Please model this.
Amino acid sequence: MMLIKCSECQKEVSDKAQSCPNCGCPIENSCNVNECIIDNVKYDIESVIKLKQNGRHVAAIKELARICNIEVGEAKKIFDRINIRVVRSEPKCPRCGSTNIQWKNKRFANGLIFKRNVCAACGNHWR
Model:
């Protein structure tokens, strides 16, 4: 079971519910952990979930639209109803995927200080 947002009142509702217990809005499209049911057709959306977990939301929405053969706007509505708890144990370098990350402070002339990630493996810098 997974909690999704009601399209009307934005309250959390079980994906197994027929309608929202708060406002009564029918739950038309339901999403499971690895599948999405649209008009009684099941679609495997594991790749969409992985993209969402990695923060690549635009790519995930486009992938959902491609998999389900629907418009991007409709895919966005469904995507917003997929609730995933992302647990990030340690940061990874976006270039090489290494978890050997160091933090450096970059100081500007106006006194601002920004923390920057530095990959010890490839030397990539990012915020």
Summary: The chain has two domains: 3-80, 89-127.
